[in-house]
Automatic annotation (TrEMBL):
GO terms for molecular function: monooxygenase activity. Its cofactor is FAD. It comes from the Bacteria. Its EC number is 1.14.13.9. This is Kynurenine 3-monooxygenase. Keywords: FAD, Flavoprotein, Monooxygenase, NADP, Oxidoreductase, Pyridine nucleotide biosynthesis. SUPFAM superfamilies: FAD/NAD(P)-binding domain. PANTHER family: KYNURENINE 3-MONOOXYGENASE (PTHR46028). Belongs to the aromatic-ring hydroxylase family. KMO subfamily. The keyword Protein biosynthesis does not apply. InterPro entries: FAD-bd (IPR002938), FAD/NAD-bd_sf (IPR036188), Kynurenine_monooxygenase (IPR027545). Residues 7-355 form the FAD-binding domain. Catalyzes the hydroxylation of L-kynurenine (L-Kyn) to form 3-hydroxy-L-kynurenine (L-3OHKyn). Required for synthesis of quinolinic acid.
Amino acid sequence: MQTPQKIAVVGSGLVGTLLAIYLKRAGHIVHVYDRSPDIRTVEFSGRSINLVMSNRGWKALEDVGLDEEIRKIGIPVDKRAIHLQDGNLNYQYYGKEGEAIFSLSRGVLNRKMVDLAEAEGVEFFFERKIWDVTLATATLWEGETEQGDWTELKYDKVFGADGAFSRIRHRMQRQSMFDYSQEFMKIGYKELHIPANADGSPKIDIHSLHIWPRGNFMLMGLANLDNSFTCTLFMPIEGENSFESLTNEEKLVSFFANYFPDTKDVIPDLVRDFFRNPNSYLAIMKCFPWTFNDKIALIGDSAHAIVPFYGHGMNAGFEDITILNELMQQYGDDWDRIFKEYEISRKPNADAIAELSRRNFEEMSAKTADANFLLQKKIEKWFSDKHPEKWMPLYSRVTFSLQPYSEAMAIGDFQNEIMQEVLKMDNIQENWNSEEVENKILELLE
């Protein structure tokens, strides 16, 4: 336990609520502010990508004994189901037998997390707009409008967990020596929906991440508890085969008939969903430092917003909390040191998962249907099964281990260089699992 302090968390999303639970358990008074209504009272649809929980996220939940509660609302997903344009379906297993990520509805999970935080004694203040913060005194400024009168709210510490467009970070950006970058991808996304069958059964396999890879665009689907699927169409915002080009029902139906013919019977409300749901945009946001003295800290997307193609936005944010908690236990009341070591530890790993997530769009949208890529994955799995102490595939390092993201990326890049050499070997398609290939990889690993 630390000396109790009065702490504000701005943002009641997944990272903010879990952080609030950790701070409450450490003995602090914790208030969470959010400008939106209580998510438990809001219909949540039209702008979501289902989340996937992996080892890093589970670790943060296990450390406060909440993992079993969350497993009840998730669906294990152990493989990709690749829907090819010719109608064929290929399966690619993620890890070793028994290893799976968990599909979770963002809305269902967020509501659950708020319930769990309230049960711990965390106080929530919804529909309260925080416009600014005085960094030196951890004073929040709240008001109805940005130009109107503000009320001051004094705290000992403030955590900015208010997402990619954080008001807390906005104030920190106006300091000298604060680095900040924001990059929008040229790709947007739109939510679509596969309902369950009339008898409640699923139309497609619930234990797969479904991907329809089509080069520079793709469709993706993850199951919900009611056997429906939240689908996400990722595609360029402008140009040929883009959101800009699909202007009417005729063009949309023709586009799906051409590129996603096997969805005709499973997405009955395609036209309605497509034109009703908004286009959403994807940004990568980086900054440093993440803290100010012993008063202010950014966490989750407010410090490192990434794109969703590795499924690690939430997992990286939860891992921030794990590291912060370890430092709190190590250094007690020395918050200056806690904050300094927290940002130094997490920054290179946040940058690494941002880069890995960017790369994974290409893998999911194009490479998953590429013969050479599939052969590479087959060889990697075969060699990894024979020599688990010498080779763990990059996806497993990121998703099924707690190895720092920066280390996982560096080793993954090295392994990819080896695999590019292996793929050049004569008759590799026929001899992929031969002693010659095994020896070549062992030699290149030395």
